[in-house]
Design brief:
Blueprint (H helix, E strand, L loop, with lengths): L12 E4 L1 E5 L23 E5 L4 H13 L6 E4 L28 H7 L11 E4 L4 E4 L5 H7 L18 H16 L1 H6 L4 H22 L12 H17 L14 H11 L10 H11 L40
Parallel strand pairs: 3-4
Antiparallel strand pairs: 1-2, 3-5, 5-6
Helix pairs in contact: 1-3, 1-7, 4-6, 4-7, 7-8
């Protein structure tokens, strides 16, 4: 097993010789405007820990940047290569996070729950004064950024989870999560042919549906970027580099679907999206950590990434990326 901590490919799921199942977040406290869980929104108090390799953490990176929370919520970036204690801060001088003073994210988990032996996942938010993990609820973190952290949003920040569209956004995100975000993992870590084929067909059935939805509209829901677009983007941007070959989702590449490829490029070229992506971290993590799938640890040189900056022409469909707001600086 490539991650001896018991957590899965991005620290969120168990895998092995049984059907892939993503574990729920063990620490699901919320940081809210009223502090009802004991964690009030407060500038400078918390630190967001991510890996640029992880699609779930990438959601938080995009949301934080779009909403202008960089000054209010500091950032720690873990090494894309894990060891037997999982996510580590070897990218920082001395191998320690300069704010938290820890070498491994697991230390913040241990500070929160003594003797904790479960998975260590990103994204994670840590309370700086106490050094304790607050939450690793990857599904809720970005929704709270959009709705609970509004007092700290930058002027002109977009509404990523508009109340009038939430039912539709939730419905769209539900299908994308089940069949695409998580579906590629179900295919990649399948332990039987039938399990793999079921996941494979789910992935491409949903991508075909999404492609049809996006044929005549620029964004998934409404006329502006929403949380739904963030969640689809973080899988699409990894698709050809990782999921197509490494996870055997190889019916077709992203670049072979004109609609999805143009949509992904549109978002990539939008401030807040492509500037949070690190393809080297992505490939290093997947191909070197998942030794059960890639035992040689060889990292492929391709694909050619220059196409991400080519014109997409999606602006012809109308829509305003930030609505009445403005792009991040």
């Amino acid at each position: 097993m490539s991650n001896p901590t018991g957590s899965g490919p991005d620290g969120n799921a168990a895998y092995g010789h049984k059907p892939f199942k993503r574990s729920t977040s063990h620490f699901a406290d919320r940081i809210t405007a009223d502090g009802r869980d004991g964690w009030p929104v407060e500038a400078g108090r918390y630190r967001l820990v991510v890996s640029r390799a992880c699609p779930w953490a990438s959601r938080a990176l995009v949301s934080r940047r779009l909403l202008g929370l960089e000054d209010a919520l500091s950032l720690a970036v873990a090494d894309p290569i894990q060891d037997d204690r999982s996510w580590r801060f070897t990218l920082d001088e001395g191998g320690r996070d300069p704010v938290l003073g820890i070498s491994y994210l697991s230390e913040a988990y241990e500070a929160r729950e003594s003797g904790y032996s479960g998975g260590v996942s990103v994204p994670a938010i840590v309370d700086v004064p106490s050094g304790k993990l607050v939450t690793n609820d990857f599904q809720q973190i970005t929704l709270d950024f959009a709705t609970e952290w509004t007092a700290l949003h930058r002027p002109g920040a977009p509404d990523l989870y508009p109340e009038r569209l939430r039912d539709e956004i939730d419905e769209v995100m539900g299908g994308i999560y089940r069949d695409v975000n998580n579906g590629v993992y179900r295919a990649g870590f399948a332990s039987s042919q039938d399990e793999y084929e079921t996941a494979y067909h789910d992935v491409f059935r949903r991508l075909d549906l999404v492609s049809g939805r996006l044929r005549n509209q620029r964004y998934l829901v409404g006329e502006t970027i929403t949380e739904a677009d963030i969640r689809l983007f973080t899988t699409l941007v990894r698709f050809d580099a990782v999921y197509h070959g490494h996870f055997k989702c190889n019916r077709s590449k992203l670049t072979e679907d004109p609609v999805l490829w143009a949509y992904a490029r549109d978002l990539f070229q939008t401030p807040g999206f492509g500037d949070t992506v690190d393809f080297d971290h992505i490939k290093q993590h997947y191909y070197r950590v998942h030794t059960g799938i890639n035992p040689t640890g060889i990292v492929p040189l391709g694909p050619d990434l220059t196409g991400w900056r080519t014109p997409h022409h999606r602006e012809q469909l109308g829509g305003r990326p930030f609505g009445d707001g403005t792009p991040p600086a």
